[in-house]
Design brief:
The chain has 645 residues and is of the alpha/beta class. 49% of the residues lie in helices and 10% in strands.
């Protein structure tokens, strides 16, 4: 029997047998509904327009619902128009007003159609849950329209009069917007982001703003997220890293307009130090034009080089502080022969293609000069006291983790580090060795410590340094490669030095036996469970498939980032898990002026329809029902007295 104190606490919420019994009936009925639809995205990389479009369109599922509902009476052109209205109601309505197309008859037909779609997407939820998602000003009216049978002669006039009144009092546009937003809200029940929200694309801040508004979302951190989280703790290497990557992809808008980070001190420093240097190896990739903060490519290249050199210095200092990282061979500034212009990498000398390093002291390569120290202090303050950045980072902490087990699926961004023989790789941290699930659990705490431990504590300083290791360390689960060859890309011509050896996980995990081993490690059954993974783009143009290990592993990084689309051939994937099947939506490169509905294909049918009772939520409801039954028994036995006032 439940602890009496706990039952008394429950009694405050359910003070009578009637109240407790009513909730038992309600929760039992919910268990009999189909499970909600889960959406899995990975590697968003700042592509805010594409991602927000996928959210609004539910990765093509809303278009499918329109076709299923109206294909027999509506031409395809009208299907597309209705879909675009649902995705962008205010934009479409404003365009219609300009051409005087939104007349009363159009509004009446449109409201009727939207109500039908709303009925379809709300059918798997309780009436109470749907009503909670409705805008308060129209909740009663929408509720009535959703539950009135238009074909019932007794209600047909009633139904028509509701719509006529909406149009007559000139709130038709607002009502249409409310219905469109409700459809969007109901189509995606739960959203999983499998890491890497940040970097490369133009506006990760806008993605974060969108996620803040979403009703049910969880995040599995990627190495790019960890880098930004580390920057928010004040880690100098992470600060340099996020600035370097943003500048290298010409993403000044996210820094200056998005987060209000003042780059003027960096630009002034770079323009002075590299005044005569063309910085050819540091010319940014221009995948997106800046809207608010256009920067001359020549100056951007100088800023890029300046922050890269500073980054190599502070990274080297971290490595020196932590010999346990085993990364001494990555302090390449100390491996340069400045007189001969060569650098030694893994025992082999390479000529350097750029030897102009005026801020590097050959006698002490990792030492920051006074100007660099002052610049770093200024930049650090911009990150430490950045209100919006910390709002976003706190959301990453409150809704994020290294991994998640949910409805028999194991979600993580990078890998579970493994050895060549298939055993789990051990990482020595804080005088202990961790591997597999224990490693992921410990790293979760370590990441939390970096942000939440008292600022001056040794534990906090150690955890903050470790955020950088997670970004690029050989045994980091969110990185999953033997080394990061950023220095080599900048300063060495030989492409053989650019190779970043993958952890054996990536070779082994495509085999079912190793997926089963990982699933068992995390307490999930082999039968019916999956690993859902991102981080490594699937090159579909080369014949790769995102479904591996006999359907046990889904790699869903297909290149939402423009930087990868030439390699992958598509623009990423959404994995969609509803009560009947798992499906993959294959994205097209986003173009706001073209119809870009993803191609959705079912990749696995479930043996029997998954109901709420079969899910993790169902297990929680079952436990709650058992508690309520004990409360009812306690009332009937007189152990707890009903409050009948």
């Amino acid at each position: 029997m439940r602890d009496l104190a706990y039952l008394k606490l429950m009694a405050r919420e359910y003070p009578t047998i009637k109240a407790a019994s009513s909730e038992i009936i309600n929760l039992t009925a919910i268990q009999g509904l189909p499970k909600g639809t889960e959406y899995f995205f990975s590697d968003l990389h700042g592509e805010h327009e594409a991602f927000i479009h996928l959210l609004k369109s539910a990765s093509g599922i809303i278009r499918e619902k329109i076709t299923e509902t109206f294909s027999h009476i509506m031409p395809e052109k009208e299907e597309v128009e209705l879909a675009n209205l649902i995705y962008y109601p205010e934009k479409v309505l404003s365009q219609l007003e300009c051409i005087n197309a939104a007349d009363d008859e159009w509004q009446r037909v449109t409201i009727y159609r939207l109500v039908q779609i709303c009925k379809v997407v709300s059918s798997k939820y309780t009436r109470s849950k749907v009503r909670k998602k409705m805008p308060a000003e129209f909740a009663y009216v929408i509720d009535e329209l959703l539950h009135v049978d238009y074909n019932d002669d007794n209600k047909r006039v009633y139904y028509s009069e509701i719509i006529r009144s909406i149009i007559d009092i000139q709130v038709g546009d607002k009502f249409i917007v409310a219905l469109c937003e409700l459809i969007q809200n109901l189509t995606i029940d739960c959203l999983h982001i499998i890491g890497d929200i940040f970097d490369r694309g133009p506006r990760a801040d806008m993605i974060m703003n969108e996620l803040l508004q979403f009703h049910d979302v969880d995040i599995q951190w990627g190495n790019h997220d960890i880098s930004w989280m580390g920057a928010a703790t004040g880690n100098l290497a992470c600060i340099c890293n996020v600035l370097r990557i943003a500048i290298s992809y010409n993403s000044f808008d996210v820094l200056e307009d998005g987060y209000g980070i003042n780059l003027r001190p960096l630009s002034m420093f770079a323009a002075k130090v590299y005044r005569e240097d063309p910085c050819e190896r540091f010319i940014p990739q221009i995948l997106d034009e800046n809207i608010y903060d256009a920067v001359d490519p020549g100056l951007a290249a100088k800023m890029h080089k300046a922050i890269a050199i500073i980054q190599f210095k502070v990274e080297g200092q971290i490595i020196k502080r932590h010999p346990e990282y085993g990364m001494n061979d990555r302090i390449l500034l100390e491996a340069i022969d400045f007189q001969r212009g060569v650098v030694t990498v893994e025992g082999k000398e390479y000529p350097m293609v750029d030897t102009y390093l005026p801020t590097v002291d050959p006698k002490d390569p990792l030492k920051l000069n006074k100007e660099e120290e002052e610049l770093l202090r200024t930049l650090q303050l911009s990150f430490l006291h950045n209100e919006l950045l910390h709002k976003h980072v706190r959301f990453l902490y409150s809704h994020g983790s290294m991994y998640k087990c949910y409805n028999s699926n194991l979600l993580y961004h990078g890998c579970i580090p493994m050895k060549e023989d298939g055993s789990f790789e051990e990482l020595q941290i804080d005088d202990q060795s961790y591997c597999g699930k224990a490693l992921m659990d410990y790293l979760d705490k370590k990441v939390q410590n970096a942000y939440f431990m008292p600022e001056n504590s040794p534990e906090c300083a150690d955890a903050r340094d470790f955020m950088w290791y997670l970004w690029c360390g050989a045994k980091s689960p969110v990185y999953g490669k033997g080394k990061m060859t950023t220095f080599e890309h900048y300063f060495i011509e030989d492409p053989q030095t650019y190779k970043e050896p993958m952890n054996p996980y990536y070779r082994l995990s495509v085999k079912e036996e190793y997926c089963n081993k990982i699933l068992e490690e995390f307490g999930l059954p082999k039968e019916g469970s999956h690993i859902i993974n991102g981080h490594v783009p699937v090159k579909i143009k080369e014949g790769e498939s995102p479904v591996k290990a006999g359907g046990k592993l889904f790699l869903i990084d297909g290149g939402l980032s423009k930087a990868y689309q030439s390699k992958t051939g598509i623009a990423g994937y959404t994995l969609i898990y509803n009560s009947n099947h798992l499906a993959l939506a294959e994205h097209k490169p986003f173009n706001p002026d073209e119809e870009s509905t993803p191609r959705v294909s079912v990749v696995e049918n479930v043996k029997s329809r998954v109901m709420v009772a079969d899910t993790d939520k169902g297990a929680e409801l079952a436990e709650r029902i058992a508690d309520l039954k004990e409360l009812v028994a306690a009332y009937r036995d007189g152990i707890i007295k009903e409050n009948v006032d």
